C-alpha cells in the first residue's frame, strides 16, 4: 500500500499508519489522496468516518479487502462519493437512516428500508426509491425490457391503477433508466386521429372494440399503447397512439361501421315514464317537419290514417285509404292486431307519423313511442 503525505513527518506516518494520506493546499480546504492495495474494508470504513464525520452501522457480513488508486487530491464530498463506489464494487450498499448510514450486503437491501427520493436530488451510488410517471406507454410493457439492465438486488414494479413505475436502485442507475424510459414513452405516441362514423354509434363501436381487445377493461383503454374515446356529440371516435396501432384500430372500425342488413335496424322503442306519448309524438313531428302539430288536428283526422306497421317498414301500400295533411304526414290510425282485425275500441290509442325518413308511432295505452329513423336522426331524437 502506497501512502502519500506531504505535510506530516516520516516518524508521524510510521506511528499513526493511516490508510489515507492528507494533502492540504490551504488552511481552509483540506484534501486527501487515497491509494490502497488490499486494505481491510473495515479499516477503510473507519478512515472515511473520520474524514466525513458520518456515522456508520456496519453489518457483520460486510467484510473483505479493497484496492483504491487516486491520482489527485479529493475533498470531503469526493471522498464519500469514492467510498460509495468502492462499496458498490464490493456488493455493499449504504442506506441513510436518520443520523446513521447502514452498510449492508446488497442481497439484503430490500429488507433494510430504502429511502424515497421524491425530489430526485440524490446522485451517485446511494440506493434510493423513485416513482417514474409515464404518459403514453403501459408500464407493464417496459418492465421486461428494463429489468435485465438492473442489478439483481434492484426492484422494479408497475403501480396498479396508475401509469407509473416504482424503482429501487442506486441513483446513478435510476438516472440512466429514466433516460431510456423517456425515449420509449415519447416515441410517436402523441398523435390523435378522429374517425367520423357513418352508420353506427360511437358507444356501440367502443363496446365492440372492448370485446375484441385482450383486456376489455376500460372504455378509453387507459394505460395501454392506445387510447380510444367515444365523442357522442359528433359521433366520432378519437384515437391516440402510435401510427401502427392507430392504423390497426382504424381498420377494425371501418369493418364495424357498416349499415345494418335489417330493414328495421333503425327501430327503437321508448317506454316513457313521465311524459305523454301522444304529446311527445306531436313535439317530435314538429321538429321533423318544422311545423306545429296540434292535438285537435290529430283527433279530426283520426279516421284517415295509415297503417303504422307499413310506415315502419317503408311500405306505401295501405289496406285502407290514406289521407295526408298539409305536411304529408298520416296523423292517426286505429289499433292493429296481428290477426289483421281492427279493434274499434282502441281506435284512439295509437297515432302514427311518417315523413322525411322518420316514422313515429305513439302507443297511448302503453305510453310508448316506436321510432324508426337513420342513425343520425335517431341520435337527435
TrEMBL record:
Q: Which InterPro entries match?
A: Bact_Secretion_Sys_Channel, GspD-like_N0, NolW-like, NolW-like_sf
Asked if the record carries the keyword Membrane, the reply is yes
Is the keyword Membrane in the record?
A: yes
> What are the record's GO terms for cellular component?
membrane; type II protein secretion system complex
- The GspD-like N0 domain covers 34-102
Question: Which Gene3D superfamilies does this chain map to?
Answer: 3.30.1370.120
What start and end residues bound the annotated signal peptide?
A: 1-29
Compositionally biased region (Low complexity): 294-328
Q: Which residues form the NolW-like domain?
A: 129-185, 193-261, 268-381
| BP term (GO), one | protein secretion
Region span, Disordered: 292-328
Protein name, as recorded: Type II secretion system protein GspD
Amino acid at each position: 500500500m502506497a501512502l502519500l503525505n506531504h505535510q506530516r513527518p516520516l516518524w508521524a506516518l510510521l506511528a499513526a499508519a493511516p490508510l489515507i494520506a492528507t494533502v492540504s493546499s490551504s488552511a481552509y480546504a483540506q484534501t486527501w489522496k487515497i491509494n490502497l492495495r488490499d486494505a481491510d474494508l473495515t479499516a477503510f470504513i473507519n478512515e472515511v468516518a473520520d474524514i466525513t464525520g458520518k456515522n456508520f452501522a456496519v453489518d457483520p457480513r460486510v467484510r473483505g479487502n479493497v484496492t483504491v488508486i487516486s491520482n489527485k487530491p479529493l475533498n470531503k464530498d469526493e471522498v464519500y462519493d469514492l467510498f460509495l463506489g468502492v462499496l458498490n464494487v464490493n456488493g455493499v450498499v449504504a442506506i441513510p437512516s436518520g443520523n446513521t448510514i447502514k452498510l449492508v450486503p446488497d442481497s439484503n437491501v430490500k429488507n433494510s428500508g430504502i429511502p424515497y427520493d421524491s425530489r430526485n436530488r440524490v446522485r451517485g451510488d446511494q440506493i434510493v426509491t423513485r416513482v417514474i410517471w409515464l404518459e403514453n406507454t403501459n408500464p407493464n410493457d417496459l418492465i421486461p425490457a428494463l429489468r435485465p439492465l438492473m442489478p439483481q438486488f434492484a426492484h422494479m414494479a408497475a403501480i396498479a391503477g396508475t401509469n407509473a413505475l416504482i424503482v429501487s436502485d442506486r441513483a446513478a442507475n435510476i438516472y440512466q433508466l429514466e433516460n431510456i424510459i423517456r425515449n420509449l414513452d415519447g416515441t410517436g405516441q402523441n398523435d390523435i386521429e378522429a374517425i367520423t362514423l357513418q352508420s353506427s354509434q360511437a358507444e356501440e363501436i367502443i363496446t365492440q372494440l372492448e370485446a375484441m381487445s385482450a383486456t376489455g377493461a376500460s372504455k378509453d383503454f387507459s394505460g395501454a399503447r392506445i387510447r380510444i374515446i367515444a365523442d357522442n356529440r359528433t359521433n366520432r371516435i378519437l384515437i391516440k397512439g402510435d401510427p401502427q396501432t392507430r392504423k390497426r384500430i382504424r381498420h377494425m372500425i371501418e369493418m364495424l361501421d357498416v349499415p345494418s342488413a335489417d330493414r328495421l335496424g333503425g327501430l327503437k322503442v321508448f317506454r316513457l315514464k313521465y311524459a305523454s306519448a301522444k304529446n311527445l309524438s306531436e313535439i317530435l313531428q314538429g321538429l321533423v317537419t318544422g311545423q306545429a302539430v296540434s292535438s285537435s288536428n290529430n283527433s279530426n283526422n283520426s279516421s284517415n290514417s295509415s297503417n303504422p306497421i307499413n310506415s315502419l317498414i317503408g311500405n306505401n301500400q295501405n289496406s285502407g285509404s290514406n289521407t295526408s295533411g298539409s305536411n304529408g304526414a298520416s296523423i292517426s290510425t286505429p289499433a292493429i292486431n296481428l290477426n289483421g282485425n281492427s279493434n274499434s275500441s282502441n281506435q284512439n290509442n295509437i297515432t302514427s307519423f311518417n315523413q322525411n325518413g322518420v316514422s313515429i308511432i305513439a302507443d297511448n295505452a302503453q305510453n310508448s313511442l316506436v321510432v324508426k329513423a337513420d342513425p343520425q336522426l335517431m341520435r337527435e331524437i
